[in-house]
Design goal:
By secondary structure, the chain is α+β, with helices and mostly antiparallel strands. It is about 30% helix and about 40% strand.
Length: about 90
């Protein structure tokens, strides 16, 4: 896990806003919204399971996007040009 990803996960666990380079976490009540290059990639409610923004992932299935999601515990990968989340093609 990259340094920025460790800090991102720490900020989510502590319920605080965070910005470093191209990654931003915005806390809104009990929900952490995670952004990469200004695009919403996921939300985490009460420290639970991340909710992936599939529209953003479909548009930007980049290695960086997938790495940030993996840091949140999401099973995401690309195989033969198709992106999968938790074993399901998107």
């Amino acid at each position: 896990m990259r340094k920025v990803e460790k800090k991102m996960v720490e900020a989510i666990a502590q319920g605080r806003d965070f910005t470093l380079d191209n990654t931003h976490v915005k806390i809104d009540f009990n929900t952490a919204h995670i952004f990469l290059h200004g695009n919403h990639i996921a939300s985490v409610v009460n420290g639970g399971t991340p909710i992936v923004n599939l529209d953003t992932l479909r548009e930007y299935p980049t290695p960086t996007t997938k790495s940030r999601l993996r840091a949140l515990g999401v099973d995401v990968y690309t195989k033969q040009g198709i992106t999968f989340v938790n074993g399901e093609a998107i």
